[in-house]
User: What shape does this take?
Amino acid sequence: MEVINALGRRKKAVARIYVREGKGNILVNNKDYKIYFPVGTLQYVVEQPLNLLESLGKYDIKVNLDGGGYKGQAEALRLAISRAFVKMDETNKPKLKAAGFMTRDPRGVERKKPGQPKARRRFQFSKR
Assistant: This one.
């Protein structure tokens, strides 16, 4: 099997992954993903598509993650893994789509408005 690459994004995070057959190692920026994502919920998010397709120990995944926070990075990685498995086998797509892993979450940070300290927060009103 050749190396399959895919891209996943979420907020400002970008995940570029390379998948090949192996022992199930997932390296994120040259660290094990359990070290890179120390919180159990983020590890679960990364493993979701692998658990759904029952291929957790079958593929080695090398990941380059850039931008965003931990949660955005984990969800970008989930999307990238899902896209890579669809590239491998088109029959995986209905399962992943039904679970909601094939959709790129379009939500981002709302822009700051002029005359306000943040996007929606207003300066405190003073009557006197």
